[in-house]
C-alpha cells in the first residue's frame, strides 16, 4: 500500500488516492443517482483503506455530507480524513459568499451534517467578488485555532487569488480542475504551490469518466468541450495507455490513476464514483507502480492538452 501524504503545512495525512463524492447525494448536479448507491460508495472507500473523502455543501445541498456523516459513524474517526467545501450561499441563489461570518457558520453547519467534531480539510469552494481573500482565509485560520478544522483549502481561485489568499502563508491545499487532458495548472500554478508548500488536488481527474477508456469514438457528443480532432487524439492516446495497462494487469483507469499518484505535483487524486464497484477498482491503483519510462510515455501521449 502506498505511503501517506502530508497536506500542506498541516498535521493532516492521507492515502494518495481519495474518493470524490459529488455523485454521493448530489441530486442537484446529476440525474438518476440513488442514495443507497451513495452509501455503498462511501462504505467501499472506507473498507478499501481509502482515507480521504472529498465532499461539499454543494453536493446535494448538504445531502452528500449527511450521507457521509451517517456512514462514518460505524468507522474509527482517526482512520479517515474528511474534506468539505462551502461558499454557495443558500440565502442568495447559491452565489459565492466568502464573508468571514458566513464561512464560520458554514463550518458549524458542515460539522453537524457530518456528525463529527472536526473537519480535516475545509475549502472555500469558490471565490466571491467582494471579500478580501486573506480575510476569508483568516476566518478559517481562527476555526483551525479553535480545533474545528485542521487544514485550510481554496478551490477555483485564480493564481492571483491564491496568492492573495496565501498572503500570511496559511493556505495548505488547493483543489482545481486538472487532468491529463486539462493541463493548464502546470504552467504557473504548480511552481507557486510547490514553492509555498501547498498541496494540490485535481478535480475531474478521469475527465468525468472519459479517461477510464470506457467510451468509444462514437461518444464525442457526450464530451462536447473537445473538438472532434481533440477527441480522436484522446481515443488514440487511450489505446496506447491500454498497452501499458495490460503489462500491469490493470485497467486503463487504474493506470491513469497510478500516473497521478506518481506525479510529484499532485498530492491526492480523488476519482468520483457512481457505484461501489468503481471504488473497489479505483482503489487498486494504489497497488500499481508504473515505471519512470511509463510515466513519461503517458505524459507525452497527452502533452498537447
Ligand atoms: N472543487 C470543485 O469545484 C470540484 C468540481 C468538480 C468535482 N470536484 C470533486 O472532484 C471529484 C472528482 O471529480 P468527478 O467525480 O466530477 O470526475 P472524475 O473523477 O473525473 O470522474 C468520475 C466519474 O467517472 C466514472 N468512473 C469513475 N471510476 C470509474 C471506473 N473505474 N470505471 C468506469 N467509470 C468510472 C463515474 O461516472 P459514471 O459512472 O457516471 O460514468 C464517476 O462518477 C468529485 O467527485 C468531487 O468530489 C470538485
TrEMBL record:
Domain of life: Bacteria
NADP-dependent oxidoreductase domain residues: 16-301
GO cellular component, one term: cytosol
InterPro entries registered for this protein in UniProt: AKR (IPR020471), AKR_Detox_Biosynth (IPR050523), Aldo/ket_reductase_CS (IPR018170), NAD(P)_OxRdtase_dom_sf (IPR036812), NADP_OxRdtase_dom (IPR023210)
Pfam family name, one: Aldo_ket_red
Record keyword Hydrolase present: no
Keywords for the protein's UniProt record, in alphabetical order: Oxidoreductase
The keyword Oxidoreductase is assigned to this record: yes
Example GO molecular function: oxidoreductase activity
Gene3D superfamilies documented for this protein: NADP-dependent oxidoreductase domain (3.20.20.100)
PANTHER family tied to this protein: NAD(P)-LINKED OXIDOREDUCTASE SUPERFAMILY PROTEIN (PTHR43364:SF4), NADH-SPECIFIC METHYLGLYOXAL REDUCTASE-RELATED (PTHR43364)
Identification of the protein by name: Oxidoreductase, aldo/keto reductase family protein
Organism: Lentilactobacillus hilgardii (strain ATCC 8290 / DSM 20176 / CCUG 30140 / JCM 1155 / KCTC 3500 / NBRC 15886 / NCIMB 8040 / NRRL B-1843 / 9)
Amino acid at each position: 500500500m502506498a505511503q501517506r501524504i502530508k497536506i500542506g503545512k498541516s498535521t493532516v495525512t492521507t492515502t494518495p488516492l481519495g474518493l470524490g463524492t459529488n455523485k454521493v447525494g448530489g441530486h442537484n448536479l446529476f440525474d438518476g443517482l440513488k442514495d443507497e448507491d451513495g452509501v455503498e460508495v462511501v462504505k467501499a472507500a472506507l473498507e478499501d483503506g481509502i482515507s480521504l473523502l472529498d465532499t461539499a455543501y454543494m453536493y446535494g445541498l448538504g445531502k452528500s455530507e449527511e450521507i457521509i456523516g451517517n456512514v462514518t459513524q460505524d468507522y474509527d474517526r482517526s482512520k479517515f480524513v474528511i474534506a468539505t467545501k462551502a461558499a454557495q450561499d443558500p440565502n442568495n441563489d447559491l452565489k459565492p459568499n466568502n464573508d468571514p461570518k458566513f464561512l464560520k457558520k458554514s463550518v458549524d453547519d458542515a460539522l453537524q451534517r457530518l456528525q463529527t467534531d472536526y473537519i480535516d480539510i475545509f475549502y472555500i469552494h469558490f471565490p466571491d467578488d467582494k471579500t478580501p481573500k486573506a480575510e476569508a482565509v483568516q476566518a478559517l485560520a481562527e476555526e483551525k485555532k479553535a480545533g474545528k478544522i485542521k487544514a485550510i483549502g481554496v478551490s477555483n481561485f485564480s493564481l492571483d487569488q491564491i496568492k492573495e489568499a496565501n498572503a500570511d502563508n496559511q493556505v495548505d491545499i488547493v483543489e482545481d480542475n486538472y487532468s491529463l487532458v486539462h493541463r493548464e495548472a502546470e504552467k504557473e500554478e504548480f511552481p507557486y504551490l510547490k514553492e509555498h508548500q501547498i498541496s494540490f488536488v485535481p478535480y475531474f481527474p478521469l475527465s468525468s469518466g472519459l479517461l477510464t477508456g470506457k467510451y468509444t469514438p462514437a461518444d464525442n457528443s457526450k464530451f462536447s468541450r473537445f473538438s472532434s480532432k481533440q477527441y480522436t487524439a484522446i481515443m488514440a492516446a487511450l489505446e496506447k495507455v491500454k498497452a501499458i495497462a495490460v503489462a500491469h494487469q490493470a485497467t486503463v483507469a487504474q493506470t491513469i490513476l497510478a500516473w497521478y499518484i506518481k506525479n510529484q505535483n499532485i498530492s491526492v487524486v480523488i476519482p468520483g464514483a457512481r457505484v461501489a464497484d468503481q471504488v473497489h477498482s479505483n482503489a487498486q491503483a494504489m497497488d500499481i507502480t508504473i515505471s519512470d519510462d511509463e510515466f513519461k510515455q503517458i505524459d507525452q501521449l497527452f502533452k498537447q492538452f
